[in-house]
Each structure stands twice: as structure tokens, then as C-alpha cells.
Design a protein that fits this description.
521 residues; alpha/beta
Length: 521
């Protein structure tokens, strides 16, 4: 069954009906595998039906919010589908969060219930004690407190609310690198449009049930949730689920070989770990037909090593929490993959690249990327002023990213607007410098930030992770890296300082915490 059949058969605004259609056609097919435990599509549908019916018995009604505070596990998918069916928006939470972060999201979202795991349950104690209202707690695991409800006990007669397309389905929160995190209102229409659009870009000839996606990205993150999990599931494929807290490059490569994984999306650090592993090359990775990457540009050496070993080109895409995932993808683009770009916009997605006055710039020129499409959020939760500022009068969302496009409408992300280094009046885009530093044979990866300078306001500094087996000071020096860059780009762009580090600080989703590097944390 293709995506057009899904759309034709189910007109309900509720996005969960997309998987109901899948279960009709692929009921006996594998849907989820997690450490040996398996669920078929029919079993997944039945479990989500029971969960949907059980929410009302806990006092969680249509429009109430369910907080998802648990690691990657089958219950994450079951509960999400069930909540969609019941008209209950789900608000994913980073399982690494502690009291203050948990408290903020619980309060701000107004969640009526929390789904958690027995290993994480103690972190809720103080948060719930300080809350001035009661919240139902559902716990996954064998050790369930008397006041809580076991996940298996949340069951009732199947129900599917005929949700309006503009009803909120997902309420994820931005990372909050500047100010408090913002709740992002993603509707059933947003999610449906995203799944339909990204499924339509598939260029593989695999039968639906032959798709086997490795889910090692966190499900609380929009890429993990939308693209590595729900996209293959609604298409009839299977997801193999592991916890990011237990990331292991050798285990990942072994799983690809043993389970004939066909689709994998990882952040740059994951690919670096695999290529840098002493066991790289010992595993058969040729079952892969699609390998995706995001979070940061990887070094040319890492990319080439992975592609040579697997025979699969790593494809890049682009998207945000506010766009429910991708707005651009190399996969499905008119002229195929073009490394260094994010590909072309997905269907139904309009884009503009504009200057500081909001005027569209010419092909090849840099400016802020604006996007508009059915996958773009409804707005920020309870933040009307920030919502208004986030959109232009024509309804384009301001991404905050600097981009340029070529004559074939392939886009390239130059850098984050807030990362631009202004040195003596010149704009320096760290990603350009990083890409060049990463070409050095002694470099595994790098990050460039601006540091204060009395004369030039700020100048670039490069933090460099040496390649495996390279000893800083002996095999490569700071001056050697500086000179390597200086020979290739304008003098004002080259890093005035180079620091060798064992690793770069990252968020759980793989993004480099540049503020920590800049502030010396």
C-alpha cells in the first residue's frame, strides 16, 4: 500500500488513522523490535486502541496533555498512537531531565498525566510534591507504586476521536538554548502532511514490509519520533528500537548486520564513532539502502570512509522542531544527492532566502531561510508574541538559519544566525571554517566559535578532536591547523586559536553546545 492509498482511504483528521490503514494491509508484518521483544502491526494497533480507551478512565480527556517521560521503548509508540486516537496531545520530555526542567514542562504544558519508566520515576517525586494540582502517573516496568497506574492497566474500549486537522497532536519543547524552552504546537494536519510528504520522497524499490529502520536517536527528539519511527511504521515497515543512553557504535553495526537494517538516521557523532571504531570494516553493512545524517556537518574523511564501506551515500536533510521534522531532503531531489547541500524543499514546502530587510536575495547569495508549508507549526504554546514574531506577514516561518540556494534549487545551510562571528565588520560563518578544518587528515571533527578580541570585537577559535591515533603536539600542532586553513580561505576567517579536545560537548540530540565552548565551561 502506497502513501496515496493511505490518503485516499482515510479522510479523518486524526493522524492515527494512517497506521490503522497500515495495520489492515500489513497486520502480520513486524512493526517494533526492542531487545528481542516484537510487535506486529496488528498487535500495535490493538495495544494503542486499548490505551486510547483507558485514558478516559484515568480522567485524561480529549484535549488534555500527556507528558512522555521515558526512554526509547515500545510503550512510547503505543502510548503516542493511543493518545492521538483519544485526542490527547503528547508532550515528549528528554529522559535526562532533572527536577527543574521537568517541573517547567509539566507546569507550562498543563499536562494531566505523565507516562514514565520505573527507572525514572524517583525524579518525579519532588516535582509532583510541589505541583498545586493532581496528575495521574502511568509507569512502565515491574515496580509500580501503589498510587500509580501500571502501563498494562491503562485499557478500555477502543476509541478514535474524529480530530480536527488543527487540533494539537504533539507538544514538543525547544531546547531552550536562549531563554526558557518553548512548547511547539504541532497539529494532526502538520503530522499527517509531514508523513505523507517524506514517504513520497522515498526512492527505494523495497516492499513496504522489507523496510527495517534502526531507531537509536531519542524518540523525544522530532527526527527520531517522526522520521526514524513513525515514517517507516505508517509505511508498513519495522523499527528496531534502542536507547540513546546505551549508544555503542559496535553494537549498532552488529545490529545492522544481524537484522539486515535498511534505513538508518544518525547524528554526525554516531558516524564518527563507527568509522573511528577499531572494528569498523568487520561488519557487513551492505543491507543499508538509506543512511541519513543531521545535527552538524561531518568531516569529508568520515563520510567517505562510511560510504566506501557500505556502498551507500550519506544523505543530508534539514528541519526543525517547529516544522515537525524535514523541510528539505537530498533523497527524492530532482538531480539526486549533492553533498554539502540539504537538497531541495519537500513537496508543498515554499522557501525564501531573505536579507535583513526581508527582501529575497539572488541565487547564490546568503540570507535567512524562511519556510512555509502544511508541516509548519501552528505556533508556540501560550506565547502569542513569540508566535507573531516567528512568522512573516505572508506566513513564512523564520528559521534563524543562514542559507543560500543554487540554480537547481538545492539549498545549503551556511550557519545559525546567532552563531555568526562578526570580526572587524566581517561576517564569518563557523560552519565554513569547520568544514575546512575537518578536511585535515589529522582531524576527526571540530567546532568554531567566536571569542572576544580587543581590536576586532571577536575572532574565530577552533576546538579540534584529533583523528584516531593522532597525538596533538607530535603528529599535528595548533600552528599546522591554522596554516592549513589560512592557505584556503580569507585571512580574517582563519582561527586565531586552536585547542585540541577529547570530545565536543553535545546535547542528547547530537548538537554541539557551542555556548559551553565559547564560555569556557
Amino acid at each position: 500500500m502506497d502513501i496515496d492509498d493511505l490518503q485516499e482511504r482515510h479522510h479523518s483528521g486524526n493522524v492515527a488513522t494512517m497506521h490503522d490503514a497500515t495495520a489492515e494491509h500489513h497486520g502480520d508484518g513486524l512493526a517494533i523490535e526492542s531487545h528481542g521483544a516484537e510487535l506486529t502491526h496488528a498487535e500495535l494497533k490493538a495495544a494503542s486502541d486499548r490505551f486510547a480507551g483507558g485514558l478516559a478512565g484515568l480522567g485524561v480527556d480529549d484535549g488534555d496533555v500527556l507528558l512522555l517521560f521515558l526512554p526509547n521503548c515500545p510503550q512510547y509508540i503505543i502510548a503516542s498512537l493511543g493518545a492521538f486516537k483519544a485526542g490527547v496531545p503528547v508532550s515528549p520530555v528528554n529522559p535526562q531531565y532533572k527536577g527543574r526542567e521537568l517541573s517547567y514542562q509539566l507546569e507550562d504544558s498543563g499536562a494531566e498525566a505523565v507516562l514514565t519508566h520505573e527507572a525514572l520515576r524517583p525524579r518525579l517525586d519532588d516535582v509532583l510534591d510541589d505541583l498545586d494540582r493532581s496528575v495521574s502517573v502511568i509507569t512502565v516496568g515491574d515496580e509500580v507504586r501503589e498510587a500509580d497506574t501500571a502501563f498494562e492497566a491503562v485499557e478500555g474500549e477502543p476509541v478514535t476521536v474524529d480530530a480536527d486537522g488543527d487540533d494539537v497532536a504533539l507538544l514538543p519543547y525547544t531546547s531552550g538554548t536562549t531563554g526558557q524552552p518553548k512548547g511547539v504546537r504541532l497539529t494532526h494536519r502538520n503530522f499527517r502532511a509531514q508523513l505523507c510528504s517524506t514517504l513520497a520522497t522515498s526512492t527505494t524499490d523495497l516492499d513496504a514490509e522489507a523496510v527495517r529502520s534502526l531507531v537509536w536517536l531519542p524518540l523525544y527528539h522530532i527526527t527520531g519520533f517522526t522520521h526514524t519511527a513513525f515514517q517507516p511504521l505508517v509505511g508498513g515497515g519495522a523499527v528496531f528500537m534502542r536507547s540513546p543512553a546505551n549508544w555503542d557504535a559496535d553494537a549498532a553495526m552488529s545490529l545492522v548486520e544481524e537484522e539486515a537494517i535498511t534505513h538508518y538516521v544518525g547524528v554526525t557523532a554516531m558516524y564518527v564513532d563507527m568509522v573511528e571504531s577499531e572494528s569498523f570494516g568487520d561488519y557487513d553493512l551492505t543491507s543499508l539502502v538509506s543512511a541519513g545524517e543531521g545535527g552538524a556537518k561531518m568531516s569529508v574523511a568520515v563520510q567517505e570512509a562510511f560510504e566506501d564501506e557500505t556502498g551507500v551515500d550519506i544523505s543530508e536533510g534539514y528541519g526543525l522542531t517547529e516544522t515537525n521534522g524535514a523541510t528539505h531532503a537530498q533523497t527524492g531531489s530532482t538531480y539526486g544527492l549533492r553533498h554539502g547541500t540539504i537538497g531541495q524543499p519537500l513537496r508543498h514546502t515554499d522557501c525564501r532566502v531573505v536579507d535583513e530587510h526581508g527582501e529575497e536575495v539572488s541565487v547564490g547569495e546568503e540570507g535567512e531561510l524562511l519556510v512555509r508549508g502544511p508541516q509548519v507549526m501552528q505556533g508556540y504554546h501560550d506565547m502569542p508574541e513569540k508566535t507573531e514574531h516567528a512568522f512573516t506577514e505572508a506566513g513564512f516561518f523564520r528559521t534563524g538559519d543562514i542559507a543560500r540556494r543554487d540554480d537547481d534549487n538545492y539549498y545549503e545551510i551556511v550557519d545559525r544566525k546567532k552563531h555568526v562571528i562578526v570580526s572587524a565588520g566581517y561576517n564569518i560563518y563557523p560552519s565554513e571554517v569547520e568544514a575546512l578544518v575537518n578536511e585535515h587528515e589529522a582531524v576527526a571533527e571540530s567546532a568554531v566559535v567566536g571569542i572576544p578580541d580587543d581590536r576586532r570585537n571577536e575572532v574565530p577559535k577552533a576546538f579540534v578532536v584529533p583523528a584516531r591515533g593522532v597525538e596533538p603536539g607530535e603528529d599535528v600542532t595548533e600552528e599546522a591547523v591554522k596554516q592549513f586553513v589560512l592557505e584556503e580561505i580569507a585571512e580574517y576567517k582563519h582561527p586565531r586559536e586552536v585547542a585540541f579536545v577529547d570530545e565536543l560537548p553535545r546535547t542528547a540530540s547530537g548538537k554541539i553546545k557551542k555556548y559551553q565552548l565559547r564560555d569556557g565551561e
